[in-house]
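Milestone M4 deliverable, item 7.
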Amino acid sequence: MSFLDTLRQWDEAVTYVDRQDLSEALRIFLSIQEPNSKICFDIGCLHLLNQELDAAEKAFDCSIRKDEHLAVGFFQRGITFYKKQRYEESVADFQRSFKTLRGNQLIDYKALGLRYKLYACEVLHNMALAEAQLGHWEKAQENLVKALDYKTDAKLNIIDKALQSTLKQKLFKLVEFPSKVLFKPNKHYVAELEKKDYLGKAKVVASVVPQDDFSGFAPLQPQVEDGPTRPKEPEVLRALEGEPHTVLFEFVPETSDELAVVPGNIVFVLQKGADNWASVIFNERRGLVPYNYLERLEISLASKQNEGISKPPTREPPTRPERKQGLTASSSSSGETQVKDAQSTDNSCIVKVRFTFNFAVSVPPGSPYAILIDKISKKLNLPSRAITLSLNSEVTGQSVINANTEMESVWSCATGRRITLWCNTKEQTDGKPEDEIHFVALHSYESSNPEDLNFQQGDTITFISRVNQDWLEGQCNGNTGIFPASFVEEVPVNDQ
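Output delivered:
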């Protein structure tokens, strides 16, 4: 299925949701052959709205596999697990959602087509409720106290009420995602789906005959012997309706009266109102645009538009990193992988590992710790010293599995040659400051993507991980995110 077909069906399905026809919207969503992460998220929301919890869980799994940084995806799957009374898995998903927020107070998904703000305090609120369902009242209180550090004025009341309930060991209400709020396709792309008349209506733009207003076809008019000496380019612009202006900033319309434009477009201003809104024409379409988004295009400079243009920057960000096939692909086909492992090693023990995604490895029954950790580290493509295993989601001294653990007690927990373990990674090896790698910014980098790390030239960045050959993950000025590797240079160890 082509991108245009997917976009057209996506927009049609969202339109049916606006009309309250959820069944038809879900039918159209499910007919999309290769849905992206946002479409899978929309499908999960509709299933969750219909109380189809198994189908909702499957859809959110698909969304997270395609975008492992989608915090709201983990949040919705955590709500799904909570409604299925699988509270341990619910706690784990809320923890991943909070981690993906990267210390920010909230994420506003409006720029990605979702009119929703995910607040860190609400994620911690739901995490505390799931802990309370498990009887872990002290952990529930700790999460709510932590939520107070991330609260906003609008969310203060709900956190205070939940904290009072935990002191009395009483459950409180779950914070749910608003119903019928879905990811919508980019308005600019949807606008391009409409048929356009690129020829338009015939119009005289230059004529030597005075007051020639004829707009159709006519016999040739008598011409003077010597043609006009004035340049043609200004005459063309002067003959068009309105004053030409250049668009400086992108404008996303919120009403049907407004017009979508992007930087570099040439629009023609028909009228400027006292409220600083201008009525313009662009591509034979009329609409309103803020006048401070425009800059008047002087006709006298029209023939010199290629002069004085500054050279483009010598460095540009590389293409966005594709999702790691080693991670997402393994999770997207985890069912097939597990079946193959189970069929190929009939006498082996199947170890299901709960990580950011789920995967399985097979080891001989009663294997020592070295064999188990080697299998898992190869699967994750990480050094074994950076991996911590545990028997449950709570990483405590009793549940942690390491080289000193009696493996007989671990394998005794297996049922039918199957066992589930939890996996976490260490951000720093052995916690030694001298193991940190630092970079210095050669160029400033600014991006509107919430997962990116913005910095200025000369800033120092602490290295966390390598995403691929062109992108790195790091921390700078208290913020964490990904950035182009070509924009930084590693600081030598002696200088650090």
